[in-house]
């Protein structure tokens, strides 16, 4: 059973499409993974289309992550799952505020439209229906569902960040993408460890 769940988590890491990203040997960041990282400086006015798409996709992504984290804070039974939900909620709220301010500075809308995720192979792993369905679970079943979904969700963030690092031009957006890669990979590693210990 554990192997099946871990396999599902690894498969879920493909997120919006592409290869699953599971870091080797990257353990928990101790309490660092459960506290918000310092904010990235306000973005400069220099940007390209890749920066805009990254910011818009991350706004959509972060809002869904916050929604799922809120459900987990109310329903998770494992302390590790609840702690991760709290860390993700705090960090992603801060990032949402930052990205929205960048898009406003650049004169771009927060919503990139219905085809925003097409470049990454389709719609994101999470949506309102998936989150609603997860609310119906309880106990260990909820914990596993949350950890699997959030691991895949954070894997999708790593994918988007890698694309930004490759194609973006805004230095602050690229620095944020680096931060996303590091933090999310640490969280994925933590979540897979909690799943394997079930």
CATH topology descriptor: Ferritin
Radius of gyration: 16 Å
Q: How far apart are the first and last residues' alpha carbons, in Å?
A: 10 Å
Number of strands: 0
- Contiguous low-pLDDT stretches (5 residues minimum) are 1-36
What is the string of helix and strand elements? HHHHHH
> Which architecture per CATH?
Up-down Bundle
InterPro entries: DUF305_CopM-like, Ferritin-like
Domain DUF305: 51-193
Pfam families: DUF305
Protein name: DUF305 domain-containing protein
Task: Supply the key terms.
Ferritin; mainly alpha; 198 residues; DUF305_CopM-like; 6 helices; DUF305 domain-containing protein; disordered N terminus; Ferritin-like
Kindly describe this structure.
InterPro entries: DUF305_CopM-like (IPR005183), Ferritin-like (IPR012347). Residues 51-193 form the DUF305 domain. This protein is mainly alpha-helical. The protein has a single domain, classed as Ferritin (Up-down Bundle). 65% of the residues lie in helices and 0% in strands. It is built from six helices and no strands. The longest helix has 29 residues, at 139-167. The chain is elongated. The protein starts with a helix and ends with a helix.
List the helices and strands and how they pair.
Elements: H1 2-12, H2 49-75, H3 79-106, H4 128-135, H5 139-167, H6 171-196
Helix pairs in contact: 1-5, 2-3, 2-4, 2-5, 5-6
Summarize the structure.
Residues 51-193 form the DUF305 domain. With 198 residues, the protein is mainly α.
């Amino acid at each position: 059973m554990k192997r099946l769940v871990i396999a599902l988590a690894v498969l879920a890491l493909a997120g919006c499409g592409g290869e699953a990203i599971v870091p080797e040997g990257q353990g928990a960041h101790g309490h660092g993974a459960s506290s918000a990282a310092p904010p990235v400086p306000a973005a400069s006015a220099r940007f390209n289309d890749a920066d805009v798409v990254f910011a818009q996709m991350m706004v959509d992504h972060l809002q869904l992550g916050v929604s799922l984290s809120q459900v987990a804070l109310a329903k998770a039974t494992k302390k590790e799952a609840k702690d991760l939900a709290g860390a993700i909620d705090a960090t992603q709220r801060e990032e949402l505020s930052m990205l929205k301010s960048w898009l406003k500075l650049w004169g771009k809308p927060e919503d990139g439209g219905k085809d925003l995720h097409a470049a990454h192979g389709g719609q994101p792993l999470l949506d309102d229906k998936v989150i609603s369905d997860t609310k119906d679970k309880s106990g260990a079943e909820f914990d596993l569902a949350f950890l699997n979904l959030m691991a895949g969700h954070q894997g999708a963030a790593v994918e988007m960040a890698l694309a930004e690092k490759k194609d973006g031009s805004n230095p602050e957006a690229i620095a944020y993408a680096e931060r996303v890669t590091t933090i999310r990979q640490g969280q994925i590693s933590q979540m897979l460890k909690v799943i394997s210990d079930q």
